[in-house]
Amino acid sequence: MEHFIQLARQLNKEIMIESRSPFDPVCPVNTPHPWQMLGCGNYAAVFIHPDYPSYVVKIYGRDEHGLLDEKKVYERLGSHPGYSVCYYTESRFLILKRIEGITLYDCVHKGIQIPEDVIYDVDEALDYARKKGLTPSDVHGKNVMISNNRGIIVDVSDFYKKETCSKWKDLRKAYFKFYKKTLYHLPIRIPYFVLDLVRIGYRYYRKLKLSKNKGK
After folding, report:
1. Residues identified as active-site
2. Of all residues in the chain, what percent are helix, strand and coil, respectively (each to 5)?
3. Tens digit of pLDDT at every position of the chain (216 positions)
4. Pick from 82, 97, 112: which residue ends a domain?
5. For the chain, is the Cβ count within 10 Å smaller at the N or the C terminus?
6. Are residues 42 and 116 in the same domain?
7. Per the domain annotation, does 59 fall within a domain?
8. What is residue 29's predicted lDDT score, i.e. its pLDDT?
9. CB under 8 Å to 93, separation ≥6 — which residues?
10. Could you tell me if 130 and 122 are in contact, meaning their C-beta atoms sit under 8 angstroms apart?
11. What's the CATH number where 49 sits?
């Protein structure tokens, strides 16, 4: 682990991560060899080193004060099959257990069936987090993975926030009302641009819903 920490520190020094819009994922400008980027989120990008396939390095590109909050979330969660594990934190980055699998978002893109048990796994993991005094937030198709046929939440960076988030509730509703009756039985690949349009449309739907609730 000590050698990997040194490699992560060097990566942290060399990497440049852009934040083009507060509504879009951060974007690495460069990825030093031999590191590989696994994905980008709203605040951070995740990288893997080929010599250490069991670990990932999550480097914050914005809202870096949230890193300590994320560390505290993992400490409160402890060991649970529905989450990753945080092994180490330092300025701007965390070292986490790598979860190998596929996100729900990519399942829809590739026409891979999402089992119903995965949804229930996430429900149970969220209930567990609430019992630990956390407020699960920002749980959506890109933050949930299927690994060994189990549903795992791979991003808990917003679990410290206090406001209510309906993303998982809305996704769950869409799964049972639409996906389970259609795409579940049809191995159709959905292009990313279509999924991005759905994501943008959902963003405006939430804004409209929020403004209506405030007006009441």
Report:
1. 138
2. 40, 20, 40
3. 899 999 999 999 999 887 776 667 788 888 999 999 998 887 889 999 999 999 999 999 877 778 999 999 999 999 999 999 999 999 899 999 999 999 999 999 999 999 999 999 999 999 999 999 999 999 999 999 999 999 999 999 899 988 889 999 999 999 999 999 999 999 899 999 999 999 889 888 777 776 666 655
4. 97
5. C
6. no
7. yes
8. 82
9. 8, 11, 12, 57, 58, 59, 60, 67
10. no
11. 3.30.200.20
> What is the β-pairing status of strands 36-40 and 27-30?
unpaired
**40 and 115 fall within a common domain:** no
Residue 107 contacts residue 27 (beta carbons within 8 Å) = no
Tokens for 193? 């641009």
In a domain, 29, yes or no: yes
State which amino acid sits at residue 80.
Answer: H
Nearest to 64 by CA among 37, 26, 29, 32: 26
8 A C-beta contact, residue 77 and residue 156: yes
Q: How far apart are CA 16 and CA 29, in angstroms?
A: 5
Counting the structural domains of the chain, the total is 2
